[in-house]
Design brief:
This protein has about 280 residues and is α/β, with parallel strands linked by helices. Helices cover about 35% and strands about 20% of the residues. Helix 1 packs across helix 3 and helix 3 packs parallel to helix 4. It is globular. The relative contact order is 0.13.
Length: about 280
Amino acid sequence: MIQGKIETIETFGAVDGPGIRFVIFLHGCNMRCKYCHNPETWCKNEYKTFTSEELIKKALRYKAYWKNDGGITVSGGEPLLQLDFLIELFTLAKKYNINTCIDTAGEPFNESEDFLTKLNKLLNLTDLFIVDIKEMNNEKHKWLTLKSNESILKFIKYLDSHNKKMWIRHVLVPMLTDSESDLLLLKNFVNSLNNVTKFEILPYHTLGIMKYKELGIPYSLMDIKEPSSEELLRAKKILGIEKSNWWTVAFLIWIININYFCSTNDDGSLTFSTLTSSP
């Protein structure tokens, strides 16, 4: 079986798709988002390997908590960099009738015959795609992520043309991804799609800064503050999603915070650790 490059596993994900999710964070990403809260996925050769069989065995321990709508979500890093592994993993998941979700930026998308053949297999095995649109303005996107957004937007259109259910997310970063003109472009793009069942705006947060310090990676957004409630409301009104529940955003921030304190052991148990400041 294929060995997947795994960064970490979260056993009770509550914001990574419908219901309670067993979340697998894959290693590796082509983009270098300036606010990425998983920069450890960039580090070369620093990951664990698991087969799909090993992961499904782990996941099934928690199936009782999933109820009718939970399941497995694969995030990252960038999941689409490990297409063969995803196909093998989700093929096995479907044998156990597990709901499957991929949380992706879509950047690796290309129209080569090999990629599309594999992607089409994956589409048939995936119940939901969560796609993060970083920025509609391509020049800003390049500055923010070091990559163009062209393949990302093509990927989303491809999913839509194949009637795949999608959630679209956008991280609101003050002074970077919050201009009215760019938000209107985002609104118009999402409105042109037929299979988006949820459109969310998420607040930029600084909870990942400590990871950059630990990894020795400079954090370039130190002067950027988290958006205020007024800034979030303004963006939601522009996007036409002002009726979204505020508790969802608050819960998301709380869950992200918990993730920095909690880790999953090989036996499925949880270890909680206390954060300490660097001397």
